[in-house]
Amino acid sequence: MEASAERYSYNPVLRWNPQVEDYFIKAYGSLHFAQISKALTRPSCYSCIRVNTLRSTSDAVIEKLQGIMRNSPSENDVQDINLEGSKGSNSFDLGMAAKLSSFQNGPISKCQIPGLEYVVFVKGSGPHGIDYGYAPGKPPKEVLVSRKCAEAVLRGAQVYVPGVMACSSHVEEGDLVAVSVAVEQPAPDGGWGLGITRGTVLQGLQTDPYYFERNGLYIGQGTTMLSRAGIFRASQGIAVEMNNRVFKLPSFHDVLEGEIFLQNLPSIVTAHALDPQKGERILDMCAAPGGKTTAIAMLMKDEGEVIAADRSHNKVMDVQKLAAEMGLTCITTYKLDALKAVCKRNGSTDMTTLCYNKDKNDVVTQRSDSRPLENVGSSTIIVGSDADTTCKLVSNEKGNERTYNSKADTRKNTRRMRNGPGRNQSLGGRVENSKGFLPNIFDRVLLDAPCSALGLRPRLFAGEETIESLRNHGKYQRRMFDQAVQLVRPGGVLVYSTCTINPGENEALVRYALDTYKFLSLAPQHPRIGGPGLVGSCEFPDGYTE
Protein backbone atom coordinates (compact mmCIF):
# COMPACT_ATOMS: atom_id res chain seq x y z
CA MET A 1 0.00 0.00 0.00
CA GLU A 2 2.94 2.32 0.65
CA ALA A 3 4.06 1.84 -2.93
CA SER A 4 0.58 2.67 -4.25
CA ALA A 5 0.39 5.74 -2.01
CA GLU A 6 3.70 6.96 -3.41
CA ARG A 7 2.57 6.34 -6.97
CA TYR A 8 -0.88 7.93 -6.63
CA SER A 9 0.38 11.21 -5.21
CA TYR A 10 1.54 14.63 -6.38
CA ASN A 11 5.29 15.00 -6.02
CA PRO A 12 6.70 16.23 -9.36
CA VAL A 13 10.37 16.91 -10.07
CA LEU A 14 10.94 19.81 -12.45
CA ARG A 15 13.19 18.84 -15.37
CA TRP A 16 15.66 21.43 -16.71
CA ASN A 17 18.16 21.55 -19.51
CA PRO A 18 21.40 20.46 -17.74
CA GLN A 19 23.34 23.58 -18.78
CA VAL A 20 20.50 25.85 -17.69
CA GLU A 21 20.26 24.03 -14.37
CA ASP A 22 24.00 24.50 -13.76
CA TYR A 23 23.68 28.19 -14.62
CA PHE A 24 20.83 28.74 -12.16
CA ILE A 25 22.64 26.80 -9.42
CA LYS A 26 25.63 29.13 -9.85
CA ALA A 27 23.32 32.15 -9.68
CA TYR A 28 21.10 31.14 -6.76
CA GLY A 29 23.02 28.42 -4.95
CA SER A 30 22.09 24.75 -4.92
CA LEU A 31 19.72 24.82 -1.93
CA HIS A 32 17.89 28.00 -2.96
CA PHE A 33 17.43 26.82 -6.54
CA ALA A 34 16.06 23.47 -5.33
CA GLN A 35 13.49 25.40 -3.28
CA ILE A 36 12.62 27.55 -6.29
CA SER A 37 12.21 24.50 -8.54
CA LYS A 38 9.92 22.78 -6.09
CA ALA A 39 7.83 25.91 -5.52
CA LEU A 40 7.39 26.33 -9.29
CA THR A 41 5.57 22.98 -9.48
CA ARG A 42 2.88 24.20 -7.07
CA PRO A 43 0.16 26.79 -7.66
CA SER A 44 -0.11 29.67 -5.23
CA CYS A 45 -1.88 28.89 -1.96
CA TYR A 46 -4.11 31.95 -2.37
CA SER A 47 -5.96 33.81 -5.09
CA CYS A 48 -5.21 37.50 -5.49
CA ILE A 49 -8.03 39.84 -6.53
CA ARG A 50 -7.71 43.46 -7.62
CA VAL A 51 -10.81 45.48 -6.81
CA ASN A 52 -11.97 48.05 -9.35
CA THR A 53 -12.12 51.00 -6.96
CA LEU A 54 -13.97 53.10 -9.55
CA ARG A 55 -16.96 50.81 -9.13
CA SER A 56 -16.66 49.22 -5.71
CA THR A 57 -14.64 48.97 -2.51
CA SER A 58 -12.63 46.18 -0.94
CA ASP A 59 -15.08 45.84 1.94
CA ALA A 60 -18.06 45.60 -0.42
CA VAL A 61 -16.30 42.98 -2.57
CA ILE A 62 -15.30 40.93 0.49
CA GLU A 63 -18.91 40.93 1.68
CA LYS A 64 -20.17 39.80 -1.74
CA LEU A 65 -17.53 37.08 -2.06
CA GLN A 66 -18.31 35.76 1.41
CA GLY A 67 -21.95 35.46 0.40
CA ILE A 68 -21.01 33.63 -2.80
CA MET A 69 -18.70 31.23 -0.96
CA ARG A 70 -21.33 30.50 1.70
CA ASN A 71 -23.59 29.26 -1.09
CA SER A 72 -20.79 27.37 -2.84
CA PRO A 73 -20.57 23.59 -2.40
CA SER A 74 -16.78 23.90 -2.11
CA GLU A 75 -16.95 26.30 0.85
CA ASN A 76 -15.35 23.87 3.29
CA ASP A 77 -12.48 23.24 0.90
CA VAL A 78 -11.28 26.75 1.60
CA GLN A 79 -12.56 27.47 5.09
CA ASP A 80 -10.95 24.53 6.87
CA ILE A 81 -7.36 25.64 6.49
CA ASN A 82 -4.81 26.24 9.19
CA LEU A 83 -1.97 28.44 7.95
CA GLU A 84 0.37 27.33 10.70
CA GLY A 85 -0.46 23.67 10.20
CA SER A 86 0.07 23.52 6.43
CA LYS A 87 3.26 21.90 5.28
CA GLY A 88 5.16 21.28 2.09
CA SER A 89 6.70 23.47 -0.60
CA ASN A 90 3.95 26.05 -0.25
CA SER A 91 5.44 27.25 3.03
CA PHE A 92 6.89 30.30 1.27
CA ASP A 93 3.43 31.18 -0.06
CA LEU A 94 1.85 30.68 3.32
CA GLY A 95 4.44 32.85 5.04
CA MET A 96 3.94 35.54 2.41
CA ALA A 97 0.16 35.37 2.76
CA ALA A 98 0.44 35.65 6.54
CA LYS A 99 2.54 38.80 6.17
CA LEU A 100 0.40 40.41 3.49
CA SER A 101 -3.03 39.70 4.91
CA SER A 102 -4.98 38.70 7.98
CA PHE A 103 -7.18 35.60 7.71
CA GLN A 104 -8.51 35.57 11.26
CA ASN A 105 -12.05 36.36 10.09
CA GLY A 106 -12.24 33.70 7.38
CA PRO A 107 -10.70 32.77 4.06
CA ILE A 108 -11.04 36.26 2.54
CA SER A 109 -8.85 39.13 3.67
CA LYS A 110 -7.73 42.58 2.61
CA CYS A 111 -4.06 43.17 1.79
CA GLN A 112 -2.23 44.80 4.70
CA ILE A 113 0.46 46.60 2.65
CA PRO A 114 -0.02 50.39 2.75
CA GLY A 115 -1.42 51.56 -0.57
CA LEU A 116 -2.60 48.09 -1.62
CA GLU A 117 -5.84 48.05 0.35
CA TYR A 118 -7.70 47.50 -2.93
CA VAL A 119 -6.16 44.00 -3.14
CA VAL A 120 -8.07 41.06 -1.65
CA PHE A 121 -6.69 37.58 -0.91
CA VAL A 122 -8.74 34.39 -0.92
CA LYS A 123 -7.16 31.40 0.78
CA GLY A 124 -6.77 28.04 -0.89
CA SER A 125 -5.39 24.72 0.30
CA GLY A 126 -3.18 21.84 -0.71
CA PRO A 127 -1.54 19.60 -1.52
CA HIS A 128 -4.24 17.14 -0.44
CA GLY A 129 -3.90 13.37 -0.36
CA ILE A 130 -6.57 11.67 -2.47
CA ASP A 131 -7.85 8.11 -2.25
CA TYR A 132 -8.02 7.01 -5.89
CA GLY A 133 -9.54 3.63 -4.99
CA TYR A 134 -6.50 1.51 -5.75
CA ALA A 135 -6.72 -2.18 -4.93
CA PRO A 136 -4.03 -4.83 -5.59
CA GLY A 137 -4.43 -6.04 -9.14
CA LYS A 138 -7.21 -3.54 -9.77
CA PRO A 139 -5.86 -0.07 -10.59
CA PRO A 140 -8.37 2.81 -10.86
CA LYS A 141 -9.69 3.98 -14.20
CA GLU A 142 -7.42 6.71 -15.44
CA VAL A 143 -7.23 9.64 -17.84
CA LEU A 144 -3.78 10.82 -18.92
CA VAL A 145 -3.57 14.51 -19.87
CA SER A 146 -0.93 16.67 -21.48
CA ARG A 147 1.41 18.75 -19.35
CA LYS A 148 -0.16 22.08 -20.38
CA CYS A 149 -3.63 20.73 -19.63
CA ALA A 150 -2.44 19.60 -16.20
CA GLU A 151 -0.96 23.02 -15.42
CA ALA A 152 -4.34 24.59 -16.21
CA VAL A 153 -6.13 22.04 -14.02
CA LEU A 154 -3.79 22.86 -11.13
CA ARG A 155 -4.87 26.49 -11.54
CA GLY A 156 -8.52 25.50 -11.26
CA ALA A 157 -9.62 24.55 -14.79
CA GLN A 158 -11.51 21.44 -15.87
CA VAL A 159 -10.04 18.79 -18.17
CA TYR A 160 -11.02 19.67 -21.74
CA VAL A 161 -11.11 17.22 -24.63
CA PRO A 162 -8.01 18.50 -26.52
CA GLY A 163 -5.86 17.95 -23.43
CA VAL A 164 -6.59 14.23 -23.07
CA MET A 165 -3.76 12.01 -24.38
CA ALA A 166 -4.77 8.52 -23.23
CA CYS A 167 -7.50 6.78 -21.28
CA SER A 168 -8.33 3.46 -19.69
CA SER A 169 -10.51 1.08 -21.66
CA HIS A 170 -14.24 0.80 -20.92
CA VAL A 171 -14.51 4.33 -19.57
CA GLU A 172 -18.12 5.50 -19.78
CA GLU A 173 -19.80 8.80 -19.11
CA GLY A 174 -20.15 9.37 -15.37
CA ASP A 175 -17.21 7.18 -14.35
CA LEU A 176 -14.90 8.28 -11.54
CA VAL A 177 -11.35 8.50 -12.90
CA ALA A 178 -7.89 9.40 -11.67
CA VAL A 179 -6.21 12.19 -13.67
CA SER A 180 -2.48 11.88 -14.30
CA VAL A 181 0.05 13.86 -16.34
CA ALA A 182 2.31 13.01 -19.28
CA VAL A 183 5.40 15.20 -19.01
CA GLU A 184 7.95 15.55 -21.79
CA GLN A 185 10.88 13.13 -21.63
CA PRO A 186 14.34 13.10 -23.27
CA ALA A 187 14.09 12.13 -26.93
CA PRO A 188 16.67 10.17 -28.99
CA ASP A 189 17.56 13.29 -30.98
CA GLY A 190 18.66 15.08 -27.82
CA GLY A 191 15.48 17.12 -27.48
CA TRP A 192 12.29 16.51 -25.54
CA GLY A 193 9.03 14.90 -26.55
CA LEU A 194 5.99 12.93 -25.43
CA GLY A 195 6.30 9.90 -27.67
CA ILE A 196 2.72 8.83 -27.07
CA THR A 197 -0.10 8.44 -29.58
CA ARG A 198 -3.28 10.26 -28.64
CA GLY A 199 -5.97 7.70 -27.92
CA THR A 200 -3.67 5.11 -26.39
CA VAL A 201 -5.38 2.61 -24.07
CA LEU A 202 -4.13 2.59 -20.47
CA GLN A 203 -4.28 -0.80 -18.75
CA GLY A 204 -2.73 0.13 -15.42
CA LEU A 205 0.18 -2.21 -16.11
CA GLN A 206 3.90 -1.56 -16.23
CA THR A 207 3.73 -2.00 -19.99
CA ASP A 208 1.68 1.20 -20.24
CA PRO A 209 3.42 4.18 -21.82
CA TYR A 210 4.79 6.51 -19.16
CA TYR A 211 3.82 4.07 -16.42
CA PHE A 212 6.85 4.78 -14.25
CA GLU A 213 7.11 8.42 -15.35
CA ARG A 214 3.57 8.98 -14.01
CA ASN A 215 4.64 8.12 -10.47
CA GLY A 216 3.85 11.12 -8.27
CA LEU A 217 2.07 12.94 -11.11
CA TYR A 218 -1.59 12.49 -10.17
CA ILE A 219 -3.40 15.83 -9.93
CA GLY A 220 -6.88 14.80 -8.82
CA GLN A 221 -10.03 12.85 -9.39
CA GLY A 222 -13.01 13.66 -11.54
CA THR A 223 -16.13 12.47 -13.30
CA THR A 224 -16.04 11.81 -17.02
CA MET A 225 -18.51 13.86 -19.06
CA LEU A 226 -18.03 11.66 -22.13
CA SER A 227 -17.25 8.04 -22.81
CA ARG A 228 -13.79 7.03 -23.99
CA ALA A 229 -14.99 6.97 -27.60
CA GLY A 230 -16.65 10.36 -27.18
CA ILE A 231 -13.52 11.94 -25.73
CA PHE A 232 -11.40 11.05 -28.75
CA ARG A 233 -14.10 11.79 -31.31
CA ALA A 234 -15.08 15.22 -30.01
CA SER A 235 -13.03 18.32 -30.85
CA GLN A 236 -14.07 20.42 -27.86
CA GLY A 237 -15.90 20.38 -24.56
CA ILE A 238 -15.21 19.14 -21.04
CA ALA A 239 -13.86 15.58 -20.84
CA VAL A 240 -13.51 15.33 -17.05
CA GLU A 241 -15.16 17.51 -14.44
CA MET A 242 -12.75 17.73 -11.53
CA ASN A 243 -14.41 17.21 -8.13
CA ASN A 244 -11.44 16.26 -5.96
CA ARG A 245 -8.29 18.27 -6.56
CA VAL A 246 -4.81 18.11 -5.12
CA PHE A 247 -4.89 21.91 -4.80
CA LYS A 248 -8.16 23.66 -4.10
CA LEU A 249 -8.80 27.30 -4.92
CA PRO A 250 -12.25 28.85 -5.31
CA SER A 251 -13.24 29.68 -8.85
CA PHE A 252 -14.14 33.28 -9.72
CA HIS A 253 -15.07 32.74 -13.35
CA ASP A 254 -17.81 35.23 -14.35
CA VAL A 255 -18.03 36.46 -10.74
CA LEU A 256 -18.53 40.19 -10.10
CA GLU A 257 -17.47 41.13 -13.64
CA GLY A 258 -16.30 44.71 -13.83
CA GLU A 259 -15.84 44.92 -10.05
CA ILE A 260 -12.91 42.54 -9.63
CA PHE A 261 -10.01 41.23 -11.68
CA LEU A 262 -8.05 38.09 -10.82
CA GLN A 263 -4.38 39.11 -11.02
CA ASN A 264 -1.08 37.90 -9.58
CA LEU A 265 0.30 40.10 -6.82
CA PRO A 266 3.61 40.85 -8.64
CA SER A 267 1.63 42.23 -11.58
CA ILE A 268 -0.32 44.52 -9.26
CA VAL A 269 2.91 45.66 -7.60
CA THR A 270 4.42 46.41 -11.03
CA ALA A 271 1.63 48.87 -11.87
CA HIS A 272 1.87 50.38 -8.39
CA ALA A 273 5.65 50.83 -8.69
CA LEU A 274 5.07 52.92 -11.82
CA ASP A 275 3.21 55.34 -9.53
CA PRO A 276 0.92 56.79 -12.22
CA GLN A 277 -0.65 60.17 -11.46
CA LYS A 278 -3.83 61.85 -12.65
CA GLY A 279 -3.48 63.70 -15.94
CA GLU A 280 -0.28 61.99 -17.05
CA ARG A 281 0.43 60.36 -20.39
CA ILE A 282 1.58 56.78 -19.88
CA LEU A 283 2.67 54.06 -22.29
CA ASP A 284 2.28 50.33 -21.69
CA MET A 285 4.51 48.95 -24.44
CA CYS A 286 3.51 45.27 -24.26
CA ALA A 287 0.03 45.67 -22.84
CA ALA A 288 -1.82 42.39 -23.50
CA PRO A 289 -3.86 40.96 -21.93
CA GLY A 290 -4.49 44.30 -20.19
CA GLY A 291 -4.22 43.53 -16.49
CA LYS A 292 -1.44 46.03 -15.80
CA THR A 293 -2.95 48.55 -18.25
CA THR A 294 -6.26 48.62 -16.41
CA ALA A 295 -4.46 48.69 -13.04
CA ILE A 296 -2.57 51.81 -14.18
CA ALA A 297 -5.77 53.48 -15.38
CA MET A 298 -7.49 52.66 -12.10
CA LEU A 299 -4.64 54.16 -10.06
CA MET A 300 -4.99 57.33 -12.18
CA LYS A 301 -8.72 57.43 -11.34
CA ASP A 302 -9.35 57.14 -15.09
CA GLU A 303 -8.02 60.68 -15.58
CA GLY A 304 -5.19 61.14 -18.08
CA GLU A 305 -4.16 59.02 -21.04
CA VAL A 306 -2.92 55.44 -21.02
CA ILE A 307 -1.60 54.21 -24.36
CA ALA A 308 -1.73 50.41 -24.58
CA ALA A 309 0.26 48.84 -27.41
CA ASP A 310 0.75 45.27 -28.53
CA ARG A 311 1.78 43.72 -31.82
CA SER A 312 -1.09 41.21 -31.94
CA HIS A 313 -4.49 42.29 -33.30
CA ASN A 314 -6.39 39.80 -31.16
CA LYS A 315 -4.47 40.72 -28.03
CA VAL A 316 -5.22 44.40 -28.56
CA MET A 317 -8.88 43.41 -28.81
CA ASP A 318 -8.53 41.65 -25.45
CA VAL A 319 -7.23 44.87 -23.88
CA GLN A 320 -10.15 46.82 -25.36
CA LYS A 321 -12.64 44.27 -24.04
CA LEU A 322 -11.17 44.33 -20.52
CA ALA A 323 -11.07 48.14 -20.41
CA ALA A 324 -14.74 48.28 -21.47
CA GLU A 325 -15.70 45.65 -18.92
CA MET A 326 -14.09 47.68 -16.14
CA GLY A 327 -15.60 50.96 -17.38
CA LEU A 328 -12.24 52.64 -18.08
CA THR A 329 -12.27 55.39 -20.72
CA CYS A 330 -8.72 56.78 -20.55
CA ILE A 331 -7.16 53.79 -22.35
CA THR A 332 -6.29 54.08 -26.04
CA THR A 333 -5.10 50.93 -27.79
CA TYR A 334 -2.81 50.48 -30.79
CA LYS A 335 -1.39 47.59 -32.72
CA LEU A 336 2.35 48.23 -32.57
CA ASP A 337 5.53 46.16 -32.36
CA ALA A 338 7.53 47.27 -29.30
CA LEU A 339 10.70 47.04 -31.40
CA LYS A 340 9.29 49.82 -33.59
CA ALA A 341 7.80 51.96 -30.83
CA VAL A 342 9.85 55.05 -31.74
CA CYS A 343 8.68 56.49 -35.05
CA LYS A 344 11.37 56.90 -37.70
CA ARG A 345 11.86 60.37 -39.03
CA ASN A 346 11.72 60.46 -42.76
CA GLY A 347 12.54 63.57 -44.75
CA SER A 348 9.71 62.88 -47.18
CA THR A 349 7.16 62.44 -44.44
CA ASP A 350 5.81 65.35 -42.47
CA MET A 351 5.06 63.86 -39.08
CA THR A 352 3.37 66.20 -36.63
CA THR A 353 2.15 65.95 -33.09
CA LEU A 354 -1.23 67.37 -32.21
CA CYS A 355 -1.14 68.55 -28.62
CA TYR A 356 -4.00 69.89 -26.57
CA ASN A 357 -3.83 71.83 -23.36
CA LYS A 358 -6.21 70.33 -20.82
CA ASP A 359 -6.88 73.68 -19.15
CA LYS A 360 -7.55 75.78 -22.24
CA ASN A 361 -8.54 73.13 -24.81
CA ASP A 362 -6.26 74.91 -27.27
CA VAL A 363 -4.87 72.85 -30.12
CA VAL A 364 -1.34 73.49 -31.27
CA THR A 365 0.77 71.77 -33.86
CA GLN A 366 4.28 70.75 -32.91
CA ARG A 367 6.77 69.68 -35.56
CA SER A 368 8.35 66.29 -35.03
CA ASP A 369 11.86 67.72 -35.23
CA SER A 370 11.27 70.24 -32.45
CA ARG A 371 12.26 67.80 -29.68
CA PRO A 372 15.45 66.05 -30.70
CA LEU A 373 16.49 62.94 -28.84
CA GLU A 374 19.76 64.60 -27.85
CA ASN A 375 17.83 66.76 -25.35
CA VAL A 376 17.32 63.78 -23.04
CA GLY A 377 18.00 64.98 -19.50
CA SER A 378 20.31 63.56 -16.90
CA SER A 379 17.65 61.81 -14.82
CA THR A 380 15.17 59.78 -16.84
CA ILE A 381 14.15 57.22 -14.28
CA ILE A 382 12.35 58.70 -11.28
CA VAL A 383 10.81 62.15 -10.82
CA GLY A 384 7.19 63.18 -10.32
CA SER A 385 5.27 64.90 -13.06
CA ASP A 386 2.99 67.91 -13.41
CA ALA A 387 2.55 67.42 -17.13
CA ASP A 388 -0.58 69.07 -18.55
CA THR A 389 -0.10 68.25 -22.22
CA THR A 390 -1.23 65.17 -24.06
CA CYS A 391 0.09 64.32 -27.52
CA LYS A 392 -1.12 62.10 -30.30
CA LEU A 393 0.93 61.14 -33.34
CA VAL A 394 -0.59 61.63 -36.78
CA SER A 395 0.77 61.72 -40.31
CA ASN A 396 0.16 64.46 -42.90
CA GLU A 397 2.05 62.60 -45.59
CA LYS A 398 -0.90 62.40 -47.97
CA GLY A 399 -2.91 65.32 -46.72
CA ASN A 400 -2.79 67.25 -50.00
CA GLU A 401 -3.07 64.29 -52.40
CA ARG A 402 -6.22 63.57 -54.42
CA THR A 403 -7.93 60.32 -53.57
CA TYR A 404 -8.48 57.86 -56.44
CA ASN A 405 -10.97 55.01 -56.10
CA SER A 406 -10.66 52.17 -58.57
CA LYS A 407 -13.68 50.38 -60.02
CA ALA A 408 -12.81 47.37 -57.83
CA ASP A 409 -12.95 49.54 -54.71
CA THR A 410 -16.26 51.00 -55.84
CA ARG A 411 -17.76 47.53 -56.33
CA LYS A 412 -16.40 46.41 -52.94
CA ASN A 413 -17.93 49.43 -51.20
CA THR A 414 -21.25 48.81 -52.95
CA ARG A 415 -21.31 45.19 -51.75
CA ARG A 416 -20.42 46.31 -48.24
CA MET A 417 -23.30 48.81 -48.19
CA ARG A 418 -25.66 46.10 -49.40
CA ASN A 419 -24.45 43.22 -47.20
CA GLY A 420 -23.32 45.14 -44.12
CA PRO A 421 -19.84 45.41 -42.65
CA GLY A 422 -17.60 42.34 -42.68
CA ARG A 423 -15.89 40.95 -39.60
CA ASN A 424 -12.76 43.08 -40.01
CA GLN A 425 -14.80 46.24 -40.63
CA SER A 426 -17.21 45.78 -37.73
CA LEU A 427 -17.04 48.27 -34.90
CA GLY A 428 -16.14 45.57 -32.40
CA GLY A 429 -13.22 44.33 -34.48
CA ARG A 430 -11.40 47.54 -35.26
CA VAL A 431 -7.84 47.95 -34.10
CA GLU A 432 -5.90 51.09 -34.92
CA ASN A 433 -2.36 50.64 -36.19
CA SER A 434 0.43 52.92 -35.03
CA LYS A 435 3.69 53.79 -36.77
CA GLY A 436 5.30 54.64 -33.45
CA PHE A 437 5.59 57.61 -31.11
CA LEU A 438 7.86 60.63 -30.97
CA PRO A 439 10.70 60.59 -28.42
CA ASN A 440 10.30 62.04 -24.94
CA ILE A 441 6.49 62.40 -24.95
CA PHE A 442 5.50 60.01 -22.14
CA ASP A 443 5.62 60.81 -18.44
CA ARG A 444 5.95 57.15 -17.55
CA VAL A 445 6.61 54.00 -19.56
CA LEU A 446 5.99 50.40 -18.53
CA LEU A 447 7.96 47.73 -20.38
CA ASP A 448 6.58 44.41 -19.20
CA ALA A 449 8.76 42.56 -21.65
CA PRO A 450 8.05 39.18 -23.28
CA CYS A 451 10.38 36.74 -21.58
CA SER A 452 11.16 33.08 -20.92
CA ALA A 453 8.33 33.06 -18.32
CA LEU A 454 10.26 30.73 -16.03
CA GLY A 455 8.66 32.36 -13.00
CA LEU A 456 5.10 31.41 -13.93
CA ARG A 457 3.58 28.56 -12.01
CA PRO A 458 2.48 25.87 -11.68
CA ARG A 459 5.09 24.54 -14.09
CA LEU A 460 5.70 20.84 -14.65
CA PHE A 461 8.44 21.09 -17.29
CA ALA A 462 11.24 23.58 -18.00
CA GLY A 463 13.56 21.67 -20.30
CA GLU A 464 12.68 23.58 -23.47
CA GLU A 465 14.85 26.56 -22.56
CA THR A 466 18.55 26.37 -23.40
CA ILE A 467 21.43 28.71 -22.62
CA GLU A 468 21.21 30.02 -26.17
CA SER A 469 17.45 30.67 -25.98
CA LEU A 470 17.85 32.46 -22.66
CA ARG A 471 20.52 34.70 -24.18
CA ASN A 472 18.25 35.43 -27.13
CA HIS A 473 15.49 36.53 -24.74
CA GLY A 474 17.93 38.95 -23.14
CA LYS A 475 19.01 40.38 -26.50
CA TYR A 476 15.40 40.85 -27.55
CA GLN A 477 14.58 42.66 -24.31
CA ARG A 478 17.56 45.00 -24.68
CA ARG A 479 16.28 46.03 -28.08
CA MET A 480 12.87 46.81 -26.58
CA PHE A 481 14.48 48.70 -23.72
CA ASP A 482 16.44 50.79 -26.26
CA GLN A 483 13.07 51.86 -27.64
CA ALA A 484 11.46 52.47 -24.26
CA VAL A 485 14.21 54.71 -22.95
CA GLN A 486 13.75 57.06 -25.91
CA LEU A 487 10.03 57.50 -25.27
CA VAL A 488 10.07 58.60 -21.64
CA ARG A 489 10.50 62.32 -21.06
CA PRO A 490 13.43 63.83 -19.13
CA GLY A 491 12.67 63.35 -15.44
CA GLY A 492 10.13 60.62 -16.19
CA VAL A 493 9.86 57.06 -14.94
CA LEU A 494 10.58 53.80 -16.76
CA VAL A 495 9.58 50.50 -15.14
CA TYR A 496 10.91 47.21 -16.54
CA SER A 497 9.40 43.91 -15.43
CA THR A 498 9.41 40.23 -16.38
CA CYS A 499 7.90 36.97 -15.10
CA THR A 500 11.09 34.92 -15.17
CA ILE A 501 13.76 33.82 -12.70
CA ASN A 502 16.50 34.15 -15.34
CA PRO A 503 19.10 36.71 -14.14
CA GLY A 504 20.07 37.36 -17.75
CA GLU A 505 16.64 38.88 -18.34
CA ASN A 506 16.47 40.70 -15.00
CA GLU A 507 19.59 41.88 -13.18
CA ALA A 508 21.72 41.71 -16.34
CA LEU A 509 19.35 44.04 -18.18
CA VAL A 510 19.41 46.54 -15.31
CA ARG A 511 23.21 46.48 -15.50
CA TYR A 512 23.04 47.02 -19.27
CA ALA A 513 20.62 49.93 -18.83
CA LEU A 514 22.75 51.75 -16.26
CA ASP A 515 25.98 51.18 -18.21
CA THR A 516 24.51 52.21 -21.57
CA TYR A 517 22.39 55.17 -20.56
CA LYS A 518 24.34 57.27 -18.08
CA PHE A 519 21.37 59.61 -17.55
CA LEU A 520 19.39 56.79 -15.94
CA SER A 521 19.43 56.18 -12.22
CA LEU A 522 18.01 53.21 -10.31
CA ALA A 523 14.98 54.22 -8.28
CA PRO A 524 13.61 52.59 -5.10
CA GLN A 525 10.53 50.40 -5.59
CA HIS A 526 7.37 51.06 -3.59
CA PRO A 527 5.94 48.79 -2.38
CA ARG A 528 8.80 46.33 -2.22
CA ILE A 529 7.96 42.65 -1.78
CA GLY A 530 10.55 39.90 -1.83
CA GLY A 531 14.30 39.81 -1.36
CA PRO A 532 17.21 41.71 -2.91
CA GLY A 533 18.38 41.14 -6.46
CA LEU A 534 21.49 39.20 -7.46
CA VAL A 535 24.90 40.84 -7.75
CA GLY A 536 28.15 39.80 -9.38
CA SER A 537 28.76 38.15 -12.74
CA CYS A 538 28.71 34.74 -14.35
CA GLU A 539 31.23 33.48 -16.92
CA PHE A 540 30.12 30.73 -19.29
CA PRO A 541 32.36 28.00 -20.77
CA ASP A 542 32.31 29.73 -24.18
CA GLY A 543 33.77 32.90 -22.61
CA TYR A 544 30.51 34.86 -22.54
CA THR A 545 30.21 36.92 -19.35
CA GLU A 546 26.92 38.04 -17.87
Number of helices: 14
Uncertain runs? 75-89, 347-403, 418-427
Oligomer category:
single chain
Query: SS-based structural class?
Result: alpha/beta
Sheet of most strands: 7 strands, mixed
Question: What would a concise description of this structure say?
Answer:
The chain has 546 residues and is α/β, with parallel strands linked by helices. It is 27% helix and 20% strand. The protein has a 7-stranded mixed β-sheet.
Keywords, please?
alpha/beta, 546 residues, 27% helix, globular, five-stranded parallel β-sheet, seven-stranded mixed β-sheet
Protein described:
- There is one protein chain.
- The protein is α/β, with parallel strands linked by helices.
- The protein has 14 helices and 21 strands.
- The protein has helices spanning 2-7, 18-28, 30-40, 58-70, 75-79, 91-100, 147-154, 228-233, 265-274, 291-299, 313-325, 407-419, 467-487, 507-516; strands spanning 46-51, 108-110, 119-123, 142-146, 159-160, 164-168, 176-182, 185-186, 192-193, 200-202, 218-224, 238-245, 260-262, 281-284, 305-310, 331-335, 351-357, 363-367, 389-395, 442-448, 488-497.
- It has a seven-stranded mixed sheet. Strands 16-15-14-20-21 form a five-stranded parallel sheet, with helices on both faces. A four-stranded antiparallel sheet has the order 2-3-1-13, with helices on both faces.
- β17 (351-357) and β18 (363-367) form a beta hairpin.
- The model is unreliable at 75-89, 347-403 and 418-427 (pLDDT under 50).
